[in-house]
Amino acid sequence: xxxxxxxxxxxxxxxxxxxxxxxxxxxxxxxxxxxxxxxxxxxxxxxxxxxxxxxxxxxxxxxxxxxxxxxxxxxxxxxxxxxxxxxxxxxxxxxxxxxxxxxxxxxxxxxxxxxxxxxxxxxxxxxxxxxxxxxxxxxxxxxxxxxxxxxxxxxxxxxxxxxxxxxxxxxxxxxxxxxxxxxxxxxxxxxxxxxxxxxxxxxxxxxxxxxxxxxxxxxxxxxxxxxxxxxxxxxxxxxxxxxxxxxxxxxxxxxxxxxxxxxxxxxxxxxxxxxxxxxxxxxxxxxxxxxxxxxxxxxxxxxxxxxxxxxxxxxxxxxxxxxxxxxxxxxxxxxxxxxxxxxxxxxxxxxxxxxxx
Length: 357
Known about the structure:
The protein has helices spanning about 5-20, 40-45, 50-55, 65-80, 125-185, 190-215, 220-225, 225-240, 260-280, 315-325, and strands at about 25-30, 35, 85-90, 95-110, 110-120, 245-250, 285-290, 295-300, 330-335, 345-350. By secondary structure, it is α+β, with helices and mostly antiparallel strands. The protein is elongated and about 120 Å long.
């Protein structure tokens, strides 16, 4: 067992060492009072050795709203055996503040706790950078949401123009061909065949116009709601790709505001597009329901799956777009591999969340 002189020498060596450190090092007694700090600590907080001798409670080195938490954490650490870190707003003697990260651990001598020792790290610059990054991220998300809104308006306008102008022109051509057909005689077989061929081409073009118009902005969302639009797209996807699409919906109609309905439909549309392009799946199972004021959209395929590192890769703009679509509504997107292969996409949106604008 070290002698008292050896302990004293070690203590002096320790204090001399920490006096050269560019961070605040401190010691507290079991009552939470400061009994030592290094030179950097005096300079940082503005207290003198005389102040420490007179008595400075550790909690008074922090803003009033943090003091209760500081005291609770000090006593918690005194009872524990591990190093723990906490963030607070530190208060200098002159009233100025800074953001601090504090790591501390109990001091034990002869099996008894005699106090607490720790280090104070000024993280003001780090917090400033974090705040600036958050502001930039929020600005980008607001811009993204604004662009999404503009894009939906443009899609609606283009869909309306295609449906009204091009659709009407195709219908007029169809009527003109029908009139022309009545003017030809039965012996003009070549002309009749040509008219019939043109009529079939016009019918096909009309269907294409309707499909493009509906994909740009499904009128079903505005007229019949989200459920009808999702059912339509599921059938359209199956017919176009040959991938079986099994859709399970809740019994009651899902009544949503237009922004949420469009967001969910676009997520459904973009997810199925990703399935068709990348998964080599033969089957998709999807479910849409509301439970406990939360809208749940689940999509599962039996394809090759997606590596975890690729889920939100910057190159995977489709998946990032899905996540950004739900953010204004406080929603969440989880994408993971299935045990039996394939990918599971789970989207949740709280219906009582105040939208972020």
